[in-house]
Amino acid sequence: MSGGNIVARRPFPAAAREELGDAQLRANLRKATHTIRDKRLRVVGEVPDWEALRQSGAAIKDDVLSRLPELLEEFEATATAAGATVHWARDAAEACAVVTQLVRDTGATEVVKVKSMATQEIGLNEALEAAGIDAVETDLAELIVQLADDTPSHILVPAIHYNRSQIREIFTRNGLSALTDDPPALAEAARRHLRAKFLSARVGISGANFAVAESGALVVVESEGNGRMCLTLPETLISVVGIEKILPTFRDLEVFLQLLPRSSTGERMNPYTSLWTGVTPGDGPQTVHIVLVDNGRTETLADDVGRQALRCIRCSACLNVCPVYERVGGHAYGSVYPGPIGAILSPQMSGEGANRTLPYASTLCGACYDACPVQINIPEVLVHLRQTGPHPVAERAAMRALSWAMRDRRRYTAALRAARRGAAPVRWVAGRRGTVRHLPWPLSRWTSTRDAPLPAKQTFREWWATERGQA
Amino acid sequence: MSARDEVLRRVRAARPAVPVAVPREYLAVDGAEDLVALLVDRLLDYKATVRRCNPDELAGTVAELLSGASTVVAPSGAPEGWLSGYQGRVLRDGEPQQLAVADLDAPGVAVLTGCAVAVARTGTLILDAGPDQGRRALSLVPDHHVCVVHSGQVAGGVPEALARLADPTQPLTLISGPSATSDIELNRVEGVHGPRRLDVVVVVG
């Protein structure tokens, strides 16, 4: 029912182990995530009504999910009336086919792209390439990743895993000259490289941060101006939009335009935000297409606990505060949606492959929940997915046995007594810690990632009985 | 079944049927006392150049800011008076034809526009393609953008500013400082594809 670049090929633990071996990667991630954390805290701290904004943001998104069929139909009607053509796609393959055909119809063999998670998700660049169409990424970080023939590792800054000198190397390898590895010099090199492409492009492809049902408007939030170039200069504009991006009214933007920039780049406002409603004669693309994509979103919507993941506005604040993300980086998650939000979004949108290991890619510390501008309770969904996901046969059998023993007081007391007798020989190994670090096979599978506590020498009931003489 | 019908059918089957009440306890009015001072502070923080002047000084201030530009592009509705002190060549967009992108991209070209509303709290200029702002490419392709803001156009926060827009279905551009990127080590660097120099003239009085 879904597909594209959201299905991990390797289990998270295996991928994470490999990434952890890269000391340069960890240094780069630590520097970047700590920079952005401090900035975010500073600009969020100066907003007195931040919690009220979060509450409204979460409620607006929940309202959208409960009225989604009506709002989608309303958006289709208003966007069409404004001159756009609206298309629908059930999954990644269908979305790619629709966009490819639209580009073919224009006769163009090159398209310029605004950074977009939806097009990354459906694997659009790969599909266009297979059709002989060059897709040029114009966001600086996406350009770096594309030139390096790599995959994104962060929602907002796909090249977060590279530092400045690595970026200069990638540029030099691809014929972009930057005099130094100073960020302004690197930005200048990207400007020169892309300028001609912007001015000659006939087709632009974008995503959208928001789609307004009452007017048919789309919104793109960006920094560099590459988005404005792609949204303004080409004759044809194709926007790929997930069905959960709908907002009921223009007024709702007053909430999200406050929440999103401060949460994502730690700015009071991002440099550029563009809104367009269908076609405006004499201003911007005169042919406008919108492709509404499901690709696993309706499966996510069907889960009472898990559907809150669809509130996500892709700010990536949760990635930047996550102790697991900070150490393993985005590639370990195997999906274009990494980090805490990816750990709940990817497995829900696609239960395939290694995605079922992703809900375990967390310490459940809750920092992501605190940072989320739309109050997605990520730890709650992680636990829910762990509970409802598949478990090894031996683990299930052990838990069933434990549950049987714990349901009856006499059985439980007897079991504790037996466990204490059984643990006596290993108690001297555990020493004062009271835990065992390594158990023999097959229990070693449990202790490979955690300590095993030993039963207490005395239970509370026994202590009570000796102190008060009553059992 | 068409993709449209199939997606809508799935959404109907999956959506929670419970109506959701949306609280709006956040500030509708920002409450800052000196909006112009706040706007100037925020613009400077983004590395924009800011000049405050009274209406009589506007033409002189604009001419001074544009002194390095050999050509100035202006939307057809920009008041004559804004450019009365400027000595270089003036190209009016749409008189009679739209300027070519190559004209906008030529070296030494600057653009002069007004704006619809400014947001003091975030240092944001909102352009809504009004007569003194023109189409979106004008404030995008030239490397130097001079924007005239009248103090009466300055709103406190985002909600007030959006509510002031006459027609939100016009193409809207929100501009907060010169073009920038945070893509290298998550540090903000000014100057990528949009205008690398943004000058804001705040006309008070």
From TrEMBL, chain A:
SUPFAM superfamilies: 4Fe-4S ferredoxins, NagB/RpiA/CoA transferase-like. It comes from Phytohabitans flavus. Pfam families: Fer4_8 (PF13183), LUD_dom (PF02589), LutB_C (PF11870). The keyword Repeat applies. PROSITE patterns: 4FE4S_FER_1 (PS00198). Residues 72-293 form the LUD domain. One of its GO terms (biological process) is lactate metabolic process. PANTHER family: LACTATE UTILIZATION PROTEIN B. Keywords: 4Fe-4S, Electron transport, Iron, Iron-sulfur, Metal-binding, Repeat, Transport. Residues 309-376 form the 4Fe-4S ferredoxin-type domain. The keyword Oxidoreductase does not apply. GO terms for molecular function: 4 iron, 4 sulfur cluster binding; metal ion binding. This is Iron-sulfur cluster-binding protein. Residues 387-467 form the Lactate utilization protein B C-terminal domain.
From TrEMBL, chain B:
Residues 111-203 form the LUD domain. It comes from the Bacteria. SUPFAM superfamilies: NagB/RpiA/CoA transferase-like. InterPro entries: FTHF_cligase-like_sf, LUD_dom, NagB/RpiA_transferase-like. It holds the Pfam family LUD_dom. PANTHER family: LACTATE UTILIZATION PROTEIN C. This is LUD domain-containing protein.
